């Protein structure tokens, strides 16, 4: 199982970015996908999540600016980030809560991390 995040880059304050995360491998079901971020010298923090029931949850700093969505057919989750601020600079990681095919069975609620994608907001 692998999660691959992409879409980061350098953007000016007020700009937009759309991050993507693709989950691949022996996946039986995607229960939820999450985005976290980690700024230099800081702990990793929650950004947003989306469940298989389409329930969303956002950190306070993300509300009104960030939108999480999913292409279920492709096991891909997106994070649309608008009105970016310098304090949004961080490495953004996706995390999947997955049911994994293991042998003849299924291992429920396994968590996997992607490698992260760098987002830099600077003029």
Tell me what you see in this structure.
The chain is built from no helices and eleven strands. The protein has strands spanning 2-6, 9-11, 17-24, 27-38, 45-51, 56-58, 66-71, 76-81, 90-102, 105-113, 117-121. Strands 2, 4, 5, 6, 9, 10 and 11 form a seven-stranded mixed beta sheet that branches. A four-stranded antiparallel beta sheet has the order 1-3-8-7, with no helix packed on it. The chain is elongated and about 55 Å long. The termini are far apart. The mean pLDDT is 96.
Number of strands: 11
Q: What is the average per-residue confidence, as pLDDT, rounded to a whole number?
A: 96
Number of helices: 0
Q: Report Rg.
A: 15 Å
The residue ranges in which pLDDT falls below 50 over 5 or more consecutive positions are none
Helix-strand sequence: EEEEEEEEEEE
Largest sheet: 7 strands, mixed
Helix content: under 10%
Report how far the terminal alpha carbons are from each other: 37 Å
Strand content: over 45%
Shape: elongated
Secondary structure class reads: mainly beta
């Amino acid at each position: 199982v692998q999660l691959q995040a992409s879409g980061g880059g350098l953007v000016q304050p007020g700009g937009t970015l759309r991050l993507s995360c693709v989950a691949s491998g022996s996946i039986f079901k995607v229960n939820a996908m999450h985005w976290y971020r980690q700024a230099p010298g800081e702990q990793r923090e929650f950004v947003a999540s989306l469940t298989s029931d389409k329930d969303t949850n956002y950190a306070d700093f993300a509300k009104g600016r960030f939108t999480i969505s999913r292409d279920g057919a492709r096991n891909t989750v997106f994070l649309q980030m608008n009105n970016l601020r310098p304090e949004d600079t961080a490495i953004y990681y996706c995390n999947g809560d997955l049911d994994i095919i293991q042998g003849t069975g299924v291992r429920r609620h396994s968590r996997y991390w992607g490698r992260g994608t760098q987002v830099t907001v600077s003029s």
